[in-house]
Design goal:
The protein has helices at about 1-15, 25-35, 90-110, 115-145, 150-175, 180-190, 195-230; strands at about 75, 85, 235-245, 250-255, 260-265, 270-275, 280-285, 295-300, 310-315, 320-325, 335-340, 355-360, 365-370, 375-380, 385-390, 400, 410-415, 420-425, 435-440, 445-450, 455-460, 465-470, 475-480, 485-490, 495-500, 505-510, 515-520, 535-540, 545-550, 555-560. The chain is about 25% helix and about 30% strand.
Length: about 575
Amino acid sequence: MLEDEALSNQLAGSPQKMNNSRNVSVDRLKSVTGSPYTRDGYMSQASSNGVYGSSDSLDASSPNCSSPSAPSYFSYSANASTIKRVASSNASLGIVNVYNTMWRTLLQLAVDPFHSVNQLAGIIINLLKNKASASSGLRSANISISSPERNNTSSASSHSTARNMTASETTSVDKMVDTEFFQWSCKMFEKSVMTEFCNKKSTNADLEHEKQNMYADNVKVKVKALQEHLQAPYTPIETEVFANKMNTLPSILRFHPYDIRLAVADNDSISLWDWEAGVKLNRFYNHSSKTCKITGMEYLNPQEAEKSLLAIATDDGSVRIWRDFSSKYSQLELVTAWQAIPDTSFIKMTTNSPGMVMEWQQNSTSLFFSGACKFIRLYDTNSELKVMDLPTGSDGCVTSLLNDSQNISLVMASCSDGSVRIFDTRQAPSSSRICSFKHSSWVINCQTLKGDGNTVVSACRGGEVKFWDLRNRECIGGLSVGSGLRSMTIHKQAELIACGVSEQMISIYNTAGDATSYIKYHEGFMGQRVAKVSCLSFHPHLVRLASGNVDGMVSVFMMSDKSK
């Protein structure tokens, strides 16, 4: 305290002007570094001229001219009031971190599911690698050839050569890494606003008329389905209306809600069939790597039959969305693709890994992803952003996801540890799990019945099918379908449950637990027995059941003619 008072008195008695704009006062230095520094890193007595660290007390040539406790970006000169700013190790470390981040981003983009993105990133990476190898060769040549007294000259020449290389390579980069974004922007700004408005106004009538016809056809499908729903709980589903043998194992089946298309996915391709006429419409590949297989498939915007999209998820965590896939004569287009879940987030499983499972909610236009990982990821397709990650809290993987349209805020996940977990997306992720139900073995699937969506049906490999009440959070019923359950699906409107067991049979039950029908043989193949079931799927509205078998057979069944 005495030293501080003496210092203030001396400074007040003999003020001194700064020599130039680079001079920093003691107070400024104190505010920057926290405390004034001297030769020993501590505050010393003021010199006779009232200025700290004069040329008498601090020698620039002294080995102790810089304080050990002072930051590395300050160095002292002969005049202590002049502080030179030099390169900082922290600053250089920050630059290195920036470059590392950019390099890691490029490496991630090089494996992006979208072909144009990974191709562009690959070009940039190859250019950088070639430039780095050329620079390292030039540097080693300069070190070996130049003498010590010519280091400066050789360094200058190398810098000039590097500048020339950079200029030439910049031109090549501009040519190789070229996009059409600038041309697209120019065209957009060149368009007349009034002309576009008039054109849209003239075509609105045709679009509205087309939409009205399309929605009228959708209503016809729903009305036809309502008549079938009344008969379905008491009528056997035995008539085979479609059967075709594929060369690969079908893994996922999806009916289009308002069209006669059936999408069949195998490991790396998707086939589109007209299940009424028995004609293949199209087949295309997902463009994923050879080691990846398709684990999820959903129709997006199915109310517009000709403009609907098809989302494909693979077990490497990527998702691709396709357009114009219905016919081989249409121009197939990849709308977008992204890495929904990083590959590093997946649990390493030796067998029976579900990969990545996917759920689409049309009302909220949201996509849900999970699988062999510890969380459920929610994406908003309108904003194209990740909304949240919900921790599952399970030691196993997620085998299926459900987000019912009646309870849009609830997400249901069946897990391999035998649990069915319910999450509320309105809560914080850490407290989002509101309840869980327990099975005795691996849960295959969980779905809800019609009505208020408060009744959940789940099935496990042990053959247990249980009904859960979300309001009371308890089991309200169940049935046993036999051990070796391989697949289970539910028709929400008709309240039917179809189960495929390892005994080469498909059994169909109503919600009362009564078996309405058993499918054991094919009709059109001289009574050929149904093979082991690999996947099942009900039509969203009509009472149609599609089954895929391990022998490659894909069939569609409907209610028998006895009901008519």
